[in-house]
C-alpha cells in the first residue's frame, strides 16, 4: 500500500502599512488602497492524505471553529469543487496568529491550504486560478498566496508586488480586544479624501527601503471607527510611538492589533521588554518575503 503523504506549511500573518477606503461597491464590499506586508509570525498547517474520502479539520484554538465554517476547510472544499484529483484530506491547524486581530489569520490558513493541496496532490493548478478561488474565500487570501510586500486595490485582491522589505523589525501589541471586520465595514462612513498622494509616497518609500519614510507615512482610515469604540487602542499607539527607536505605529487592518515599526532589532527587544507585562499579547516580529511556505 502507498504511504499517505504529509505536508507542513507555514501560514504567515500580514499587517497593513497603509489602508484607505476609497468607495463602497454595489456588492456591499468596499474598494481599498492598501499596502500589505507579510510578517514572520505564522500558524502551522499540517495537511495529511486520508485513505477515506472527504475533508476533516482540527484546530487547537478555542475561538476557531473545527468544522466546515473554518476558512481552511472552505478552501479545501473550493478546490475539490473546482478540479478533479483531490483525495481525502486531514487538516490540522496549530494557531499562533491571534484570532480576529487584523492579522489575517483565517486568510493565511486558507491560502496555505490552497497552496498545499496543489502540492500534496500534484494538481498543477495555475497560480492565477488559486488566486481566483482565494478571492471568493476572502479579500486577503490572494495576498496571503503571493505574500511579501504588495499594493492592493479592488477589495484588496488586485495586487501589485512591491520590492520586498527584508528583516525589518516590528512590535505587535494586542490588549485582548477582538474586532469584527464586518461590523466595522457595515457602519463605515466613506472618507472624503482618496489620499492618492499619500499612497504613492509610502509605496515610493517601500521601493527605496526608506524605513524612516515608511514610519512617517503609516496610515489606516479604520483607526477612526475602531479607536472611537476602543479608546485604549489609541493610547497604546501613542505609548508605542513615544518609545526610543520607534519609527511609526499603526493599527493593522480592522484591528485591534497595533504594530510599531522599529529602527533595529535591539530597540524592538527593548520595547517588547517594556510592554510585555502590560498586555496579553506583546511580541517582536519582522517582515517576511512569503505568505505561505513549505516547512520541512
Ligand atoms: P478578517 O479581517 O478577515 O476578519 P482577522 O485577521 O481580523 O481577519 P481572523 O483571525 O481571520 O481575523 O478571524 C476572523 C474570524 O474568522 C474569527 O471569528 C474566527 O473564528 C473565524 N475563522 C474561521 N476560520 C478561521 C481560521 N482558520 N483561522 C482563524 N479564524 C478563523
Task: Summarize the structure in short.
By secondary structure, the chain is of the alpha+beta class.
- Series of secondary-structure elements, N-terminal to C-terminal: EEEHEHHHEEEHHHEHHEEHEE
Give the structural class: alpha+beta
Total count of domains:
2
Write down the CATH class of the largest domain.
Answer: Alpha Beta
Overall shape: globular
Q: Roughly what is the average pLDDT, rounded to an integer?
A: 95
Secondary structure tally: strands: 12
Q: How is the main sheet built?
A: 8 strands, mixed
The proportion of residues forming helix, as a percent range, comes to 25-40%
- How many helices? The count is 10
Radius of gyration: 19 Å
What share of the residues does DSSP label as strand, in percent? 25-35%
Quote the CATH topology of the largest domain.
Answer: Ribosomal Protein S5, domain 2
Bound compounds, please?
A: adenosine-5'-triphosphate
Do you know the CATH architecture of the largest domain? 2-Layer Sandwich
Account of the protein in words:
With 296 residues, the protein is an alpha+beta fold. The chain folds into 2 domains: 6-162, Ribosomal Protein S5, domain 2, CATH 3.30.230.10; 169-286, Alpha-Beta Plaits, CATH 3.30.70. It contains 10 helices and 12 strands. The strands form 2 sheets. Strands 1, 2, 3, 4, 5, 6, 8 and 12 form an 8-stranded mixed β-sheet that branches. It has a 4-stranded antiparallel β-sheet with strand order 9-10-7-11. Strand 9 and strand 10 form a beta hairpin. The model has no long low-confidence stretch (mean pLDDT 95). Bound molecules: adenosine-5'-triphosphate. Adenosine-5'-triphosphate (ATP) binds next to helix 1 and helix 2.
Amino acid at each position: 500500500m502507498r504511504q499517505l503523504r504529509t505536508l507542513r506549511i507555514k501560514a504567515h500573518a500580514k499587517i497593513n502599512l497603509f489602508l484607505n477606503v476609497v468607495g463602497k461597491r454595489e456588492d456591499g464590499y468596499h474598494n481599498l488602497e492598501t499596502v500589505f506586508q507579510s510578517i514572520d509570525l505564522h500558524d502551522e498547517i499540517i495537511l495529511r492524505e486520508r485513505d477515506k474520502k472527504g475533508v476533516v479539520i482540527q484546530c487547537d484554538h478555542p475561538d476557531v471553529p473545527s468544522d466546515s465554517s473554518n476558512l481552511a476547510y472552505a478552501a479545501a472544499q473550493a478546490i475539490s469543487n473546482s478540479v478533479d484529483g483531490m483525495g481525502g484530506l486531514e487538516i490540522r491547524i496549530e494557531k499562533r496568529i491571534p484570532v480576529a486581530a487584523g492579522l489575517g489569520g483565517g486568510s493565511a490558513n486558507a491560502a496555505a491550504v490552497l497552496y498545499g493541496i496543489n502540492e500534496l496532490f500534484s494538481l498543477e493548478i495555475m497560480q492565477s486560478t488559486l488566486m481566483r478561488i482565494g478571492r471568493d474565500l476572502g479579500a486577503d487570501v490572494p495576498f496571503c498566496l503571493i505574500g511579501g510586500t504588495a499594493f492592493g486595490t479592488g477589495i484588496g485582491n488586485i495586487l501589485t508586488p512591491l520590492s520586498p522589505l527584508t528583516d525589518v523589525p516590528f512590535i505587535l501589541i494586542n490588549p485582548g480586544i477582538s474586532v469584527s471586520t464586518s461590523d466595522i465595514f457595515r457602519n463605515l462612513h466613506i472618507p472624503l479624501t482618496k489620499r492618492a498622494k499619500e499612497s504613492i509616497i509610502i509605496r515610493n518609500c517601500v521601493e527605496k527601503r526608506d524605513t524612516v519614510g515608511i514610519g512617517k507615512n503609516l496610515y489606516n482610515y479604520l483607526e477612526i471607527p475602531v479607536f472611537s469604540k476602543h479608546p485604549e487602542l489609541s493610547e497604546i499607539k501613542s505609548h508605542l510611538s513615544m518609545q526610543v527607536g520607534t519609527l511609526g505605529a499603526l493599527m493593522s487592518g480592522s484591528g485591534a492589533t497595533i504594530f510599531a515599526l522599529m529602527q533595529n532589532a535591539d530597540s524592538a527587544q527593548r520595547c517588547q521588554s517594556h510592554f510585555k507585562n502590560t498586555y496579553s499579547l506583546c511580541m517582536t516580529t519582522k517582515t517576511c518575503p512569503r505568505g505561505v511556505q513549505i516547512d520541512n
